[in-house]
């Protein structure tokens, strides 16, 4: 027969000094799966987890994974939409003369996206969209 004191050496059954938590409060699917695995590993064999409760936790894990996948898809879609719109708007001004907020005029040579922002190529340099005051045909 196993020594009963070894059960109480488990971190789940010991009292830890209270400390301020650091990090974020978000739980990802990896952390959820680790918690579920630890719960199954250390459950009392004489009083196992109820089937309904266990299925509820598996359903929560599945729902969490699906929500995370949907979130990632929406983020990707949003990013692609922003880039697509920026490139479409930017491409309409190639070859046109733009006047900047400081009064200088440049002919647009091309466009680029740097750090998520549309930049206008004016030859040897780039300007941002918020520096454009006027676009001439």
UniProtKB/TrEMBL annotation:
<dbReference type="Pfam" id="PF03963">
    <property type="entry name" value="FlgD"/>
</dbReference>
<keyword id="KW-1005">Bacterial flagellum biogenesis</keyword>
<dbReference type="InterPro" id="IPR005648">
    <property type="entry name" value="FlgD"/>
</dbReference>
<keyword id="KW-0969">Cilium</keyword>
<comment type="function">
    <text>Required for flagellar hook formation. May act as a scaffolding protein.</text>
</comment>
<protein>
    <recommendedName>
        <fullName>Basal-body rod modification protein FlgD</fullName>
    </recommendedName>
</protein>
<keyword id="KW-0966">Cell projection</keyword>
<comment type="similarity">
    <text>Belongs to the FlgD family.</text>
</comment>
<keyword id="KW-0282">Flagellum</keyword>
<dbReference type="GO" id="GO:0044781">
    <property type="term" value="P:bacterial-type flagellum organization"/>
</dbReference>
